[in-house]
Amino acid sequence: MNGKQMRKIKVAAIGAGNRLNAYAEYARLYPKELEIVAVVEPNEVRRKYCADYFQIPAERCFTSWPQFFEFPRLADAIFLCTPDHLHYQPAMAALEKGYHILLEKPIAQTWQECMDIARKAKECGCIVGICHVLRYHPYFRKFRQIVESGELGEIISINHVEEVGIERMTHAFVRGLWRREDETNPMILSKACHDLDLMVWLSGRHCLEVSSYGSLKWFKEKNAPEGSTLRCTDGCLVERECPYSALRLYYRQKRWLRHFDIPEGKDPDSVIWQELKTGPYGRCVYRCDNDVVDHQVVSMLLEDEVTVNFSMDAFTKEGGRKTHIMFTQGEAFGDEKQLTVRYFLPDKADKVFDFSASFGECNFHGGADLYIVADFLQAIRGQKVSGLLTSIETSLESHRIAFEIEKKRVK
Ligand SMILES: NC(=O)c1ccc[n+]([C@@H]2O[C@H](COP(=O)([O-])OP(=O)(O)OC[C@H]3O[C@@H](n4cnc5c(N)ncnc54)[C@H](O)[C@@H]3O)[C@@H](O)[C@H]2O)c1
């Protein structure tokens, strides 16, 4: 690549939490392509971590996004990874200033806001990429390639299951950040906009109609067992036999600690204990202020009479997606670890593709978090004729479907 094509892109990081750290890692791996030049983060531990990691000078570290946007433009683009309810306003402010944005999903909290951002991006001539990272995952790319190749004939229907997994469910959607619709979004948007996007992208068809059932059935006070207390640390009599114990998950097993800030030099046990005593993650799962669903089913009618059955389930031991696509000449199914292609003709052997190494907590969604950044940087440099794979224009459809589903959901 020539020097112009490889122009280093400068990015300001807004919301230096888990997602930002995954995308920003690209700057450490490819410092000639990307530099993180500013950070906006109210949490001192995370702001300092980001500033130290990327050597950002103090004058470019901010505690709030309005303060940041008062400054003249100091980067080409923004990585916008704030919580769901803080996407719309900073995104609009960034576009006003002419920043390109890599924006975490969901785009915003209402359909109107999603469209506003897309319109504003067009007006300002800015690129907005939405972090539908699964489109970049080698496993889902393989699925898409199989559909596109036509080797199995015409697509007829899809069965797709999003197994949220009980630990992710209680951590994120009962005790944690995505537990309330008013603070974030309905779960069909905050968790499953990825799945809705995949259905449209894999099938290559637009969605015409939806219907849905689902509710919050289990994680409610009326289901709290006798002897349970407000917090798992309050001497709960059933803590040891409760599959949702916060003490077991966070304190004894030291897992799912990604939203706990453990300052350097502090004893992790005492920080975790304090969080469980006072913070959201120590609460009894039956006594939180959660209102998002714990199970939901969706039917979708796509163009060309293609149908989709989609189910989002909290009550599974592990998390993951299972996809089964039926075609006129065969079928393709996978569980993210293996993808099998099976032909109806007896002389054609099954094909099995192994992806077991590419999913997991610490590998950036099988590299997808890094591929999306590479794609975004190329789009900014004008290297992509076809445009960004997950542009806001493309991503609007999954959001439109999610809002439609939520309207139709029979509670
Ligand atoms: N693409 C994916 O696969 C995926 C996965 C998980 C989460 N997400 C989305 O990414 C976003 C961030 O999620 P996360 O898991 O990184 O959460 P997080 O809590 O780890 O990070 C969010 C950060 O934003 C900071 N913040 C809060 N208010 C702010 C403000 N006013 N200005 C600047 N920063 C502020 C928080 O302090 C926090 O550090 C959410 O919208 C979430 O839905 C996407």
From TrEMBL:
What one GO molecular function would you report for this record? nucleotide binding
Pfam families per record: GFO_IDH_MocA
Where, by residue number, does the polypeptide cross the bilayer? none
Give the source's domain of life in one word: Bacteria
InterPro entries the UniProt entry points to: Gfo/Idh/MocA-like_OxRdtase_N, Gfo/Idh/MocA_Oxidoreductases, NAD(P)-bd_dom_sf
Domain Gfo/Idh/MocA-like oxidoreductase N-terminal positions: 9-130
Name of the protein: Gfo/Idh/MocA-like oxidoreductase N-terminal domain-containing protein
Q: From which source organism is this entry? A: Odoribacter laneus YIT 12061
Starting at the broadest rank, the lineage of the source organism is:
Bacteria, Pseudomonadati, Bacteroidota, Bacteroidia, Bacteroidales
